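Build the 3D complex.
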Amino acid sequence: MSFFKRNRDELASLGIDPARLPPGQYHTKRFPVLHAGSVPEVDLDDWDFVIDGLVAEPKKWSWSEIEAMPTADTTADIHCVTKWSKFDTSWKGVPVNHLWEQIAPSPDATHVMINAYHGFTANLPIEDFLAHENLFAHTYEGEPLELNHGYPLRLVVPHLYFWKSVKWVRGFTLISEDAPGFWERNGYHMYGDPFQEQRYWGD
Ligand SMILES: Nc1nc2c(c(=O)[nH]1)N[C@H]1C(S)=C(S)[C@@H](COP(=O)(O)O)O[C@H]1N2
Ligand SMILES: [Mo]
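Done.
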């Protein structure tokens, strides 16, 4: 029996519905660290979060302003394109919708490009970006995010592969057509639905 088959069969004995595990994935309790390039040096004193692009007026907040914003909790399964899934991860942070309410988007805006340290980017349709459970998270399992996992702030978009959940996020840009972000230029799927196995170009 293959590793993947055994791993999937194990779910029932853990009381987890196997339908929660997307095709081609295995579940793990570990929390692997994955990113391109190096971990940034973060200085909260000159950290800011910027919304720009197709908005009536660009917006900018300091770390203390973001930290003071209303929060929500999300518990979700996460699915990495490298085939691990982790169930019931819990996050706290500023709902994406809360920030969205602070701006006046142009009617031409259809997508967002998420921006992070070192020029890392990821693209999302606005509709997916605004899913109610999505957060700009600063807390994981009740503790501040670890630097490796995106401290001080990361996007969490549980319904797409985890590469869209940008670590060390610094803002986003509203754009009028889809465009590839960092991993999407390097072979990953433009959308990335784990249940459709949209891993790579052509999937
Ligand atoms: N800024 C940034 N965010 C990123 C990445 C990256 O390279 N840079 N990689 C993505 C990928 S491919 C994955 S699988 C997840 C991994 O998150 P983790 O290290 O917390 O498990 O972060 C995503 N967010
Ligand atoms: Mo990934």
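The chain has a mean pLDDT of 97.
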